Amino acid sequence: MELTDKSLFKTSCYINGEWVNSKEGKDFHVHNPYNQEIIADVPDLGKEETEEAIKAAEVAFHSWKKKTAGERSSILRKWFDLMMEYKEDLGKILTLEQGKPLPEAIGEIAYGASFVEWFAEEAKRIYGDTIPGHQGDKRIVTIKQPVGVVAAITPWNFPNAMITRKVAPALAAGCTVIVKPAKNTPLSALALAELGERAGIPKGVLNIITSNRTKEIGEALTSSPIVRKLSFTGSTEVGKQLIKDCASTVKKVSMELGGNAPFIVFKDADIDKAVAGAIASKFRNAGQTCVCSNRFFVHEEVYAEFTKKLSDEIKKLKVGNGFDEDVLIGPMIDQGAVNFVNYIVNDAVKKGAQLLDGGKTASSNDHIYLPTLLTDVDSSMSVYHEEIFGPVVPIFKFSSTKEVIQLANDTPFGLAAYFYGRDYAVIWKVSEALEYGMVGINTGMISTTVAPFGGIKESGFGREGSKYGIDEYLEIKYLCFGEVDDDEEY
């Protein structure tokens, strides 16, 4: 892998404007998921370094919050410009450590950068209100102020965009940030810090901690009274624990957790477009996204047609090294992910599901799971209840709108849902009835900077992106002015 700017490949952490290593001299390996080769050793930081980062962020907060919105906006805009200038290099780093195909990785860089651009503009639109007073000599005003020091814990599946989606609104609001990236994919985070430094982000405003001691770092962040906000993207299990841990200091929290997205095809749907939407929604990043379609519900009258056409398209998907040309599906992140998908598929087959495509790893690489299609699936199978996080399509059959709404909502999760149909009365009814934070109607792609991203139920709370995203990093303060003499003549 050749980079235009080799200095973007950082292997030290970034705390208080300095590139630092572990005080204990500890490192851990970062692997290429395609061939398991060691691509870097990065610092294995612990509680002591985390507390230093928290203190640095606290000091920096007092000056950063005092900068004008225009000043913060200008720095963020420079950061965006640098990301776009080096998007190919950033994409190569991402593919190397995460595995997704290079064009998809470069697409993630542009997507991640779009949040920086968006919130650079939103920084100048943090408006308060005036409220009619409740008494004649009172005047009421609300202002919005940054919450303070923010901790962001991000996942491996989008190691660039999940950082910018949290950091950009936080910095725009006037907060300072400590980022703990996933141990599988820390290099993308460090490259972002390098570009942030070049853009003029002051020391202490953005800090990156790499560590293989996730629990130790998490406890340091959640127990600190200095950290006033925690934003987490990851599993529901871990999210629940973080919520508990944050309760001791009553932090503001936002959680983007697991999903179990339904993909519904009604009998009046355009089947070809539904198949294209299914491919886009299911197989991006080898199915390793929280908004990937998980359970496919197809009306019995179009079940055979949809299944046949989808199978034909699945057979065209090229798997392999993310750096190879025309590859659409790369490796799973690690062996544990492969084992889990194997378990899900084998459980379904043992309980009566029919395996039409895939169902195993590629002969050339046992970390690549082949695109898999299962039919005759029912609710007794784990694939109905579990978040698959892999390139597996289980197809269920339904006969009525009432039935499919009940099936789609039969999960504790509520992140994303998708459906295809043409009857707009049904579209409105189904859109309102689905218990999900986001619904894609006749589209398999819903993620965009301009719309609020987030879920309900056990998929979490809070929204990222859009005009709503910056509110997660702001507090509303109410100011009541008394002794305003309403009777005085002027």
Automatic annotation (TrEMBL):
Active-site residues per Swiss-Prot or TrEMBL entry: E256
Molecular functions per Gene Ontology: succinate-semialdehyde dehydrogenase (NAD+) activity
InterPro entries tied to this protein: Ald_DH/histidinol_DH, Ald_DH_C, Ald_DH_CS_CYS, Ald_DH_CS_GLU, Ald_DH_N, Aldehyde_DH_dom, Aldehyde_DH_Superfamily, Succ_semiAld_DH
Record flagged with keyword Oxidoreductase: yes
One Pfam family this sequence matches: Aldedh
First-tier enzyme category under EC: oxidoreductase
Record-listed E.C. numbers: 1.2.1.-
Keywords linked to the UniProt accession: Oxidoreductase
Aldehyde dehydrogenase domain span: 19-478
Sequence intervals crossing the membrane: none
GO annotation terms (biological process): gamma-aminobutyric acid catabolic process
PANTHER family per UniProt: SUCCINATE-SEMIALDEHYDE DEHYDROGENASE, MITOCHONDRIAL (PTHR43353)
Family: Belongs to the aldehyde dehydrogenase family.
Descriptive protein name: Succinate-semialdehyde dehydrogenase
Species this chain originates from: Flammeovirga yaeyamensis
